[in-house]
Amino acid sequence: MPSPAPSSADLTHFLTHPWCAALLSAPNTTLLPTPSRVPKKSTEDSFFAVTLRTGDTIPFMLSFSSPRILPAPSDGVAAAAASPATPAPPIEQVSTLFALEAGLNGYPVTAHGGLIAALFDEAMG
């Protein structure tokens, strides 16, 4: 079964924030599906698909990939090894944006530390 496409509500939300809009509109940016946001009969992914998908927790989440620019070689030896005839393939980077709401607070206006660990786990796969 193919992964679901990102929701237009998620994209619309993040495009209203200039910093996020700049990331999402950069050249060669590709929106990625986020299957863990879709409820499943098996209850797999229920934490992000159900428990954390509310207006008070994480109403919007969006993943995307973009090419990462490799740094230029800094010395003559490395420069000779990286000839223009054989350019290195771009390294892709994957990013995930989360809209965090007050229902996630562990302290006033501060997300709970356990949630932060869960966000890292989710974003890293």
Note down, in words, how this protein is organized.
The protein has about 120 residues and is an alpha+beta fold. The protein has one domain (about 10-70, about 90-125). About 30% of the residues lie in helices and about 20% in strands. The strands form two sheets. A three-stranded antiparallel sheet has the order 1-2-3. A hairpin with a 2-residue loop joins strand 4 and strand 5 (about 110). It is globular and about 50 Å long. It starts with 7 loop residues before the first helix and ends with a helix.
What's this, in brief?
With 125 residues, the protein is an alpha+beta fold. 31% of the residues lie in helices and 21% in strands.
